[in-house]
Amino acid sequence: MLFARRRHFFKRVGLPCLVIALLVFFLFFVLLPLAFRTSVTLQRGILFLTFITYPKGLDLSKPHSIGLFATRNFYITVKDHDEDDDGVRIGVWHVLPKNVVHRFRRELRVEADLETETSSQQLKPTHVSLDSHELERLAPELRAEFPVIVPENEQLFYERLLRVPGATVVLYLHGNTATRGSGHRSEVYKLLRHLNYHVFSFDYRGYADSDPVPPSEDGVVRDALMVFEYIANLTTNPIFIWGHSLGTGVATHMCAKLAHMKERGPRGVILESPFTNIRDEIRLHPFSRPFRHLPWFDYMISQPMYDNRLRFESDKHVGEFPQPIMIIHAEDDVVVPFHLGYQLYRTALDKRRRSWGPVEFHRFERTHGYGHKYLCRAPELPGLVEQFIESYRNTIY
What we know:
By secondary structure, the protein is of the alpha/beta class. The chain has 15 helices and eight strands. Strand 7 (325-330), helix 14 (338-351) and strand 8 form a beta-alpha-beta unit. Helix 1 (2-38) packs parallel to helix 12, helix 9 (217-234) crosses helix 10 and helix 11 runs antiparallel to helix 12. The relative contact order is 0.11.
């Protein structure tokens, strides 16, 4: 009797629940990975996350709205054999260094902004910028040529300042999601500005106000190369690369390409929160936690991305260019685990030639809570960056 009741209960309740559970498992752990495997569009979407935008309503043509005064917004066209003849237009910012802004504050009409920022900013460079004497010498000539900076002469003024002897340029390559105007990124620009460096940042294809072209690894690397080429064509002053998160993969790939083409490269590369390659990173990313232990994870997730040239193999590329590298990583980074950054450092030590630039690694303890995005708030970071740049700005490897 009791057995019959239990069997009846199982038929009415247990069996339907089991069927639903199996269907959910099949949909979530089989069909979804299968859809991922067969769709390069889905793979690119998950990797680049171009649909995640913040802050909402930001007008990227007005960087002043997020406190980046004396910053030029403009656009570069990337000629791309995979796209139409018009090329791909990408949005770029050029942030002037503080010593330039201070000297030309009247012409730039930023006296009030500069006074407000100076009163709230304690960071001061420990070195005297090498272009300060040249700025002082050229100031009368520049003021005569540019009595006030208006849209009609803005490009000429900014590009002229890049050619002042002794200036230093940092090209920032951001990670996935959002735009060049996101909060933690603007904090990095301000840090570099206060160290008296020119800063360039841009949005890859598919992001923000750049053309809505689906990004690929080759495409975003091509975008970075075009911005680097734009800067290099304007000035012989040293250029450094700073990549963050996915941008570290772009940075190492770009530098490897420049080395292979025997083109002028940067003087040094800063990698913030880097990974070894996408295969390693996607297995350890929080999004993959429900799937990573499935026996078909590599077949359904990792291998298709590799086959579709979404690789970002920094552990390969660090052995292909000679410039010095500085790696910085927080122990409490949950997006790109700390050990991937350290593993990349060890790989670089093993693969690079002895005659090449050195590789540095700086860890930031988890107790500080910097996580994946806020190493820019570490009080010791400006000194580390300044020491790295000033050590290698005049050395060509």
